[in-house]
Amino acid sequence: SIVPIDIHILQAGFLNSVAVVFLVYNFEEYNIYKMHRILQNLRPSITYRDKHRTYSTEHRRSGLVLGVYGKTFTPEAEQFNSQHGGLLHKVLGNSEPLKVGGTMVLHGVGEHTATCLVGLGERREVPNNDGDPSNEEVPNDEREGRDEAADNIRRGVAAGCRALQTLKIPDISVDPCGRPQAAAEGGYLGTFSYDGLKAEAKRRVRVNLVGLGADGGGWEVGRVYATAQNLARELAETPANLLTPSGFADRTLTELQGLPEVEVLVRDREWIAAERMGAFLSVSQGSVEPPVFLEVRYTGGAAQQPPLVLVGKGVTFDSGGLSIKPANSMPPMRGDMGGAAAVVAAVSAVARLHGHINVVALVPLTENMISGSATRPSDVVTARNGLTIQVDNTDAEGRLILADALSYSATYQPRAVLDVATLTGAMSVALGEGAAGVFSRSRPLWEQLETAGYQTGDRLWRFPLYKLYEEQVSESRLADVNNVTTSPGAGACTAAAFLGKFVETDNWAHIDIAGVMESKGGEYQVKGMTGRPTRTLVQYLMNQAEIGGDN
Q1: Cis omega (within 30 of 0) for bond into 533
Q2: pTM: predicted TM-score of the whole model, two decimal places
Q3: What is the pLDDT of residue 127?
Q4: Is 325 a catalytic residue?
Q5: Is 412 in contact with 310 (CB distance < 8 Å)?
Q6: Which residues contact 109 (CB under 8 A, 6 or more apart)?
Q7: Would you tell me the crossing angle of helices 180-190 and 216-237 to the nearest 10 degrees?
Q8: Rounded CA gap, 371 and 194, in Å?
Q9: Active site includes 146?
Q10: Which of 223, 148, 149 has the alpha carbon at shortest distance from 192?
Q11: Which of 399, 501, 532, 535 is catalytic?
Q12: pLDDT of amino acid 216
């Protein structure tokens, strides 16, 4: 119904333009959409008119993301379809259903530069508690260990927002798809990029996301969750020369400044020595950068309420020390403070959400470097709790700094203690990017963490803490314990057992995030440092508080 009947090319000096005349036999929105796409391929600024209206492709730099379940529209997508003469039905009519995370971009429809349809999965009839069919959710595969409906929305919205971001569209309205928190998380996570050190021409456009008719509370909660994870990603990506231990502390002060009920304490080497944190200091002694012990306190709960304590491994660069790493393993070690980044970001999110809970984050910050003053293999150091440690491998340094921080956590008489660390390559071998590994003496605490991972889609998986592993780390010729074992295998398990020697409560969990530190990209993760498991920590804390999100 659209036939190009004449083309005139005018070239005169600076003028270089193309005029295309179309004869439209059947004037309707679908034809205008197709004509608009043809014109946009010719030149980014086009004005064209019919006897009723004038159209322009100029200065229309806004986008819209709409959800589709197979070929069934969300309410927002259905409303859009009705407003534009059934356009979406026509576009999708002869195509395959969009898969989860699949996209289809339409140009020049309505008021937006581009509209992106995103696949959310197929809805099926799922019996409810009364035995009646319900089509309200995508059914869950229990083997996946996550809320599949919410995660599909995150994946779809992330893909749609990325597609529009690639078109350099800065203002994007997002269909909440019935789950505004999940939609916001997908949008903000999917459009993250760490490119501030590149030339402006190489940077991705910064986007402004707005929930389309979304419940303000749910969308805002999702924004806070996602921006917290993005903060952790940014910290982990930052080159180590730009984020030293002192630099990390300064950045924390800047990020948390002005948040209600938040206090940040930056402890120096003298304080660390006064606390008898010999294991922590032994790691730092090879670096010219001084160590820092960071305490972040959020007091949103009752004064008498014991806090939940988060401990994050903060090795801002890990060369391996004298037990040096291979050269190709070193560049990612700028992110060996991923645990520290996650716990600081989690506290910032809980404070922004005004969670009715008391939380403390403890972060030992140091580099693990090589010098004449560095710890030597077989050196013996004394931890804060008095245990002596034979250090046979200086590249097993994370457990040394965590040992003193975990011992110090007892001063808060906490409800529970969670430590988060990029601790072992063994965990990366075991789980890869699929989940972070958890070790806990408490079944209720594990179940609470598992629930939080299910809600956020950032999954956790439990590993054993057998006495066997405790016995293996206690085998030392020179000291009470050894920071590594001579027994083959189970490296993640023996590392967790080592940490258990320095914890005074059974309500403790160790989360090994080595496998999820980086991503190759996909779903709503972009390539690079992931910031995981920040959202799961936030969800766990909010579940323990008096308020929570809508996931």
Answers
A1: yes
A2: 0.88
A3: 54
A4: yes
A5: no
A6: 29, 33, 36, 84, 87, 115
A7: 30
A8: 31
A9: no
A10: 223
A11: 399
A12: 66
